Amino acid sequence: MDIKLPKKPWYVKYRMYIVGGTLLLALIVYAAVLQLRPRTLKSEIAAEQLAVVCDSDFLEYVDVNGLVCPITSMRVNAMEGGTVERICCHNGDLLRRGDTILVLSNPKVLEEIETERRTYELQQMQHRQQLVEMQQKSITLRGQALQANFELRKISKNFALEQEEARMGVKSQAQLEVARDEYEYNRRRTLLTIESLHHDSLLNAIGRQLIEQQMQMEAQKLRNSDRRRDALVVLAPTDGQISNLSATIGGQIAAGEQVGEIGVLTDYKITARLNEYYIDRVQSGQTATAFNKGERIALEISRIVPQVQEHTFGVEASLRGEASLRPGLTLRLQIELGQPERRLIIPRGNFYAQTGGQWIMRVDESGHRARRVPIKLGRQNTEFYEVIEGLQPGDRVLISGYDRFGDAEVVEW
User: pTM of the entire structure?
Assistant: First the structure.
């Protein structure tokens, strides 16, 4: 006899599909949970990799290398050209004013000097002869003037005698008139002679003065010629240290060519080149600090060189006290760009290379977990970053490099 079987539930037929769908749905949910959960990485974190955000004084400055230079440098030029015969010093030597640097030889210059000397001696002989002739002429003119004055006095006395004779009746009035005319004629002629002699004396004196001035000019020309001989020996123009001396024995030096440089060591300055970004933020009078073997040296910006070359410009800083320096020394130089201000700061760290200052790992309350948080940084110096937003005083952050964290949003240790 047939037995009636009970009817199976509908899900028995589809149980495999149901089980498969359930597993797939669970897998999807699990994957979604994993996606929503922050990416976490376990790592070893040392105490020195952590820093505390603090509210403190922030001083913005630029850190560059500075070169110690003499406060003043003088170029040493050869006044006369020639062949280098002897070099009397070396780069770095300390010289006194008048010390010999180079000795040049130039036969052509020496020959010209000798020719000028012979010409001078010949001209001096000619001028002396002219002066003797003018002296003799002056004596002759004085004798002629003396004779003319004597004649004038004699004529005056003769006329006075004839006037006396006319009053006594010895001579008639007509004879007196003739004598008067003769007296006036002789007196005027003698006066003209005296005036002519006076002009001749003036001309003679002027001639002597011109000759004497010409002799002085020729003597000065000879002295200048002698200076050309002296210029073949190049001397130190001041006390200091010689540098940039590039002459060689037998080499040719042109007139006016630079043969070296003298650095005056009475004081020093420090020169540096800054990025053109700071050209409107650095002014004369700003303070700066140099560091030399642990010693802090106070400086003041004394000069700005505004010409931009290869995106940099030059500055010069002078000492504000005494310091043990030497030319050519390279120092670390900090130029302050303002006054200290109260700001939120964090120490500099390698995290900036990966984040660009856009975010940082902040440690939570547990002290063993750090989470990525967005931040905004402002100014910086060699020690600190200025925090504009994203952190609070007392927060602890990771400032070490983040390259080993990958794309993790949470770091645990």
Answer: 0.53
